[in-house]
Amino acid sequence: MLIKIPRGWEIPEREATPESTYLNRRQLLAGLGLAGIGGQMIARAASLKQNNEFQVGDRPVTEEWAATGYNNFYEFDPENKERVKDLVGKFVTSPWTVKVSGLVNKPQTFDLDKLIGSLPIEERIYRFRCVEAWAMSVPWIGFPMSALINMVEPKPEAKFVKFWSVVRPDQMPGVKGGFGGYKFPYYEGLRMDEAMNPLAFFATGLYGKPIPKQNGAPIRAVLPWKYGYKGAKSIERIEFVAKEPPTFWNDLNSREYGFYSNVNPNKPHPRWSQATEKVLPRMSRQPTLMYNGYEKWVAGLYNGKEY
Q1: CB 298, CB 197: distance < 8 Å
Q2: What is the end-to-end Cα distance of the chain in Å, rounded?
Q3: What is the secondary structure of 44-78 as a DSSP string?
Q4: Quick one: CA dihedral 218, 219, 225, 229, positive or negative?
Q5: DSSP, res 43
Q6: pLDDT the model gives residue 8
Q7: CB neighbours of 259 closer than 8 A, spacing ≥ 6?
Q8: Contact 220, 234 (CB under 8 A)
Q9: 3-state class percentages of the chain: helix first, strand second, coil last, to nearest 5
Q10: pLDDT-wise least confident of 39-48, 114-123, 167-176, 288-297
Q11: Concatenated DSSP letters for 243-296?
């Protein structure tokens, strides 16, 4: 069964962008000479390296129209995933800065455009698994989380990293009205060894282009072994701290959403099973893999009791 797409936007499967097309499109866009964050991404796209080290299984890349049209982003719409893309037009993502503070030797505020230009940008195709039991496979563009962390030189007492998403009520209609008791800005956290794991990634692009607003523009965290909500979107602040920081969903309901939130088919959500997942766009069922298939890269970080 296909996910429901609003009339006027839905395209037939035969017209969905194939992987070969979006890869070739990078060469075309590279010659356009666009400026800003998007320009940094596009200008470097022609020589973009695809990192195949973390490939898992044979799941095909999710069609672009599906991955960019079915999004959890409560700041825009806390109920309807298919409406988010239609509500992001007023959201301003350039220029953009990311402030890094806390227990580091070199606290600083990064201009994102300059940061992208100074780091090795690569493409990684990662499985993505939502806690709501739907899944996809996404070609993210960005850089390892460790690259930014090394630039600010964390102090030995820095044991955790905390992320804040931006909140702009005039640009984000979902933050108004206090729906569901949500208190923005969104905030998330990781243990330092998780943030330094080779899988941990900051995404600034998607499908060979700058990341769309509905997917977390202009920069978001991607942690493929964890449920999707662990990856903070539209990040504007990062802080290094000594103690485990509070996180958005854990504060709202600690019984349902733990700090770690690793993908685990053997631990059901209190309201549904996690043993299988629905793969976009057809929502076909298949077994959920431990750590979303990334067990060999991350299992050593855990004792099996985290949630």
Answers
A1: yes
A2: 31
A3: TGGGPEE--TT--TTPPPPPHHHHTTS--BTTTBS
A4: negative
A5: H
A6: 30
A7: 189, 244, 247, 250, 306
A8: yes
A9: 25, 25, 50
A10: 39-48
A11: SPPP-HHHHH-TTT--SS-B--TTS-BTTB--SEEEETTTTEEEEPPGGGGTHH
Assign a CATH topology to domain 13-301.
Sulfite Oxidase; Chain A, domain 2 (3.90.420)
Distance in angstroms (rounded) separating the CA atoms of residues 66 and 89: 19
Of the candidates 35, 38, 29, 272, the residue with the CA atom closest to the CA atom of residue 134: 272
Six-digit token pair at 217? 């523009």
Segment 19-62, tens digit of pLDDT:
444 444 444 333 333 345 565 555 555 568 899 999 887 789 99
The DSSP symbol for 216 reads: T
**Which DSSP state fits 194?**
H
Phi, psi of 50 (to 5 degrees): -95, 120
Q: What does the domain layout of the chain look like in residue ranges? A: 13-301
CB 17 within 8 A of CB 23: no
Listed in sequence order, the residues at least 6 apart from 92 whose beta carbon sits closer than 8 Å to its beta carbon are 168, 171
Strand partners, 285: 278
CA–CA gap between residue 137 and residue 123 (Å, rounded):
13
Strand order in the sheet with 235-241: 108-111, 97-102, 235-241, 160-165, 187-191
Return the axis-axis angle of helices 36-43 and 19-30, rounded to nearest 10°: 110
Per-residue pLDDT tens over the stretch 233-289: 999 999 999 999 999 999 999 999 999 999 999 999 999 999 999 999 999 999 999
Q: Are the C-beta atoms of 189 and 102 separated by less than 8 Å?
A: no
Query: What is the pTM for the complete model shown?
Result: 0.87
